[in-house]
Design brief:
There is one protein chain. This protein has one domain. It is an all-alpha fold. The chain contains four helices and no strands. It starts with 6 loop residues before the first helix and ends with a helix. Helices cover 75% and strands 0% of the residues. This is DUF4287 domain-containing protein. Pfam families: DUF4287.
C-alpha cells in the first residue's frame, strides 16, 4: 500500500484519531481485523470509511498504521 500523504501528516492523523473518533487505535485495529477479509488495502479503506463514517484520510491512515502494526508484531 502506498502512503498517500507525508509521514508527518500520517503521524498527525494517527495522533488525532482518538479525539476525532472517540476510539483508540487498538479498537480500530480490532474493527479492521473483525471486518471483511479484503485482499486490497484500498478496499479496506473504502469499507472503513463507509461503515464507520470516517473521512478517506483517517481511514487510509488507520489502514496504513494497522498494516505497519501487523508487520511489526509478525517479526
Amino acid at each position: 500500500m502506498s502512503l498517500n500523504h507525508s509521514p508527518e501528516t500520517h503521524k498527525n492523523l494517527i495522533a488525532r484519531i482518538p479525539k476525532v473518533t472517540g476510539r483508540d487505535l487498538p479498537e480500530w485495529f480490532e474493527a479492521i481485523d473483525n471486518g471483511p477479509a479484503f485482499l486490497r488495502c484500498d478496499e479496506r479503506v473504502n469499507w472503513l470509511a463507509d461503515e464507520h463514517g470516517l473521512s478517506h484520510g483517517y481511514a487510509s491512515a488507520l489502514v496504513h498504521e494497522h498494516e505497519l502494526h501487523r508487520r511489526a508484531v509478525r517479526f
